[in-house]
Write a structure and sequence with these properties.
2 copies of one chain form a homodimer.
Chain A (H helix, E strand, L loop, with lengths): L25 E5 H18 L2 E5 H4 L2 H9 L4 E4 L2 H9 L4 E4 L6 H16 L3 E6 L2 H18 L5 E6 L13 H11 L4 E7 L11 H24 L7 E3 L5 H7 L4 E2 L9 H4 L14 E10 L4 E3 L14 E3 L7 E5 L5 E5 L11 E5 L3 H5 L4 E6 L6 E7 L8
Parallel strand pairs in A: 1-16, 2-3, 2-9, 3-4, 4-5, 5-6, 6-7, 7-8, 8-9
Antiparallel strand pairs in A: 1-10, 10-11, 10-15, 11-14, 12-15, 13-14, 16-17
Chain lengths: 395, 395
Amino acid sequence: MPPPTNAQPETHPLVGQPVAAIDTPALVVDLDAMERNLQRMAEFARKHGIRWRAHAKMHKSAAIALLQVRSGAVGVCVQKTAEAEAMAAGGVLDVYISNEVVAPHKLARVARLAHRLAADGGRLGIAVDSLEGIERLAAAMNEARLATRTPAVIDVYVEIDVGQGRCGVPPGPAGATLALAIRRHPALRFAGLQAYHGRAQHVRSPAERRALIARSSEQVLLTCRLIEAEGVPVPLVTGAGTGSMVCEAASGIWGELQAGSFLFMDADYARNERDPAQPAFEHALFVKTQVVSTCAQHAVCDAGHKSHAIDSGLPLVHAPDGEHVLEYANGGDEHGILRAAPGARLPELGRLLWLVPGHCDPTVNLHDQLVGVRGGLLRGTVERVFRVDARGALT
Amino acid sequence: MPPPTNAQPETHPLVGQPVAAIDTPALVVDLDAMERNLQRMAEFARKHGIRWRAHAKMHKSAAIALLQVRSGAVGVCVQKTAEAEAMAAGGVLDVYISNEVVAPHKLARVARLAHRLAADGGRLGIAVDSLEGIERLAAAMNEARLATRTPAVIDVYVEIDVGQGRCGVPPGPAGATLALAIRRHPALRFAGLQAYHGRAQHVRSPAERRALIARSSEQVLLTCRLIEAEGVPVPLVTGAGTGSMVCEAASGIWGELQAGSFLFMDADYARNERDPAQPAFEHALFVKTQVVSTCAQHAVCDAGHKSHAIDSGLPLVHAPDGEHVLEYANGGDEHGILRAAPGARLPELGRLLWLVPGHCDPTVNLHDQLVGVRGGLLRGTVERVFRVDARGALT
């Protein structure tokens, strides 16, 4: 069952309260910064004449997905069936599961969702990388058609491995084999190629990112030619993330960008050297935390790695007032240890601090809500609270 | 507001189903192994004549806490006020927040909970490491007494830093100063010392762990002597974890063990060389996952670091049938990459696999439920489902 939707967020008791009223630790969104990032992305896509499909695995909030759609996103992509269900339950009509699903009971959920979205005038997509996956998906769509007595078509993307080394068939003839297999099933529409190079996102130098995506481009082109040689058009190539998107946008090959992190920008993405073509996205997601213990050497705050993910490094300490120059060291599940730069002073007991998480996606997944603040982190007011609808939506 | 309690877990639709019915990824508890671990801990504590207070920051489930209390635990400890509220709401009567709380609005919650538990015949404890923390706690207890018109006393432990390098005053006179300050407030009872050496838990060699806790013991003794020199008895020294507990139990200084991980045993604790005095705890917590993609070099499963925490290393692939010898490599938020040992074969598409998480505490915190299986991971049946009551209980 998908979780209930994010209706009436304005009724949250925090709305209208000053930033000081937000208990710690909490995940806070600087709405002004988020909206500037959203506008930068929309402008970038318009300028390049490219579609963008925001990756909702990052924010997991249907309300934020709808903000993105209103700004020009064609819809969202997600990685899990349960995330797709949560987005659809929250009113998102165009959802793409950019990942493989092979369990028959889960494909039954996928097929039911495809029929539900089609009935509402929406659409569902999914990625495949095996003949077995295609046959099982077709069987599930057939079952759902019989059960609902309404026809629906699901968009099926063939995933090719363009350098990530994870899912996807190798570039080349395997892609054509799968495209032809998809076309044998009337309820499946061959929608194009899923081509995402995850590792390229975090390569620091723009020149190296360009070189990696240039190699991916050759692999995509080769696969497209082989598919087209079978008389099958490739309607779309979809992929890219916040790190490499300027390369895919400039390629003339990708027709759709799947960036997600640009909206919140985490500490790890900020470590990338910015390509001059890249919009200047800014940090919009913060962990509000408080100092709960002090000693001569350090201070301890109440946010550890149950408050923020550390798979891509520890958080940075943000200093909206420029007062403290602090380094965050790992203090375990519930604590962070703060050390001052030489000459700087340690924060006092009770002091409120702001952390920029190392990786936004798994950080958001630790929280039930995102507290949206207008007017800055120091003197702002809570304007709305986003429910993390797909938090823990693992299946 | 604390989450609702774990009433009638037997009504969960998975109960009575075979293991095959558990969707992936899911967190599964081998109930037979868990109960053996529980019994080993109870026997260990009995043999050493020492109290044990299970750390519920690990399992976050009131139902599991009650199982531990029925096996002889005096109660639970937790790290967060919201965890304490969740445990109390689930029927646990003796709760200790082994951590510092300094925010006045949070101390108001602590004080209300102390009064609620006292009214039910239970008790609440908390750690302090500053005069300001003590004064604020006393003020909150006073407010709660006026509001509830019932007297209550909270157990207050002075935390000393015995090697962890995090919270706590240095061993020595600072501890005596805090003990005396606590005794000036009638609603605060000086309950003893909190002395936990977190880093010692994961030191691999038993001899090195013994050396670290021997040093901690001297520091505790020194502090006890200084407090007692002020005419103040030290009722209890509490601390220790699964890694070092045999040392604290043998010391004659600690009167209470706070081990938590022994119940589930994660991959990181299993990397410790076992002290001969340590009970042979076994893995009882697993992520059930499925292979969703395969290629010549590797297989990909549907559990990434949104399914299990990786702060203490990647999960191990458990082979209940001994068939697959696989290594798990990081595949990002939603994927794991499985590589076969030389000569071993890769698992096929759709194959179900079991992972032993690197660190149980933050892994449990990613899930809403723990699926309890009786009769083994291969042919067992779901007997009960534990709600993770304090999942995301960060404040």
